[in-house]
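Local shape tokens

___
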Amino acid sequence: MQNLHKLFQNNLNQDSLLKKLDIQQNDKNSLSDARKKIRAHLRSGVAKITEKMMGKNKKVFPKFFTQGSWSYKTLNDPAIEPPQEIDLDDGVYLPMSLINESPPTTACNAFFQIMDSLLAELVLKNKEWELVKDKKTCCRIKINNKSHVDLPLYAIPDDEFIALSEKAALRGYGSITEAAMIFDSYDWLQLPSDKIWLAIRDGNWEQSDPRKVDSWVKQQKNIFGQQYIDICRYLKAWRDNQWETDGPSSILLMVCISQSFEKNQNRDDLTLLKVAEKLVIQLINEVSAPFIETDKSLNHLQGEERKLASKKAEKLYVSLNKAVYETSDKDVVLDLVANEFGSRIPRDHPLIVTYSAADVVRSYPKKVVPAPAIKKVKAG
């Protein structure tokens, strides 16, 4: 039996898959700086537009809520770039009254037009940036060849929008205007879930609350510990190595992991093996979302795509099982694992620990077995 745990996770200063999945600090800084610039420009731009529309006392500052893998701490460095990129999702929120004054489709289109025009101004100031306007559920700015910021657009009721500012002001900001320009995550917890609407570029609105997913992921971490987040990152790395584009969505993989998770504190390889075994069936079927109240499936793969995903998951399980249980050749072990997760698996024999059959037996806790009952018998 082979222990592959250190191939996936070693200490912070040593080579491992998890270490190589971490985003470089300069890439983090670029995205953080871009988010700061985008927020500042949209605050200023929307305030000017709404002041012109409704008067000085009614100008609106949009609110923001960072969501997705950046928030969950499951963001990985791309496996294949291009086309894969680092993604930061930053939701933009405006009050419903700006929408209700027009037919829903007109208001939705106007929302995108306003944001696209303001972002186009910002791109002119940052020549290396690029505005992408073909995404169905968001505006996108490409920061460079490796990174982009997605901006989903949401509408919330006016009274809730105002309440967010007032609550922040009561906790020490100088004015409601100042509070309106500052994001406070605590206040977002108070917003009713059924009052958030996502704009779609085809002119429709979809009820959508990104906080539900955010809250659910954090709950899984509380239940299962940091190992749950690490396993999510490994499986996303596997997906990115197997599919240049598309494949199972990140949130689909995270829900599948939650449904099959069996914690093994000291063995990420064995935990991952159990997850892979169940994934074979999960990816070919519907997968319900615990954070969505309808019966809508998270598995958006169709027909042959599901069959392919299931076959790839089966190959992952077979490879991990062989690597752990069926070979003593460490080069074969490394080949099996690298074929699934790519070249970021370190090719380092000392990271693989071999156990003998006796070691495996001794690894189980001792059990006290009661002495057998001896019956009295009469001899001849």
Notes: The chain has two domains: 2-16+212-362, 25-208. Confidence is low (pLDDT under 50) at residues 173-189. The chain is about 50% helix and 10% strand.
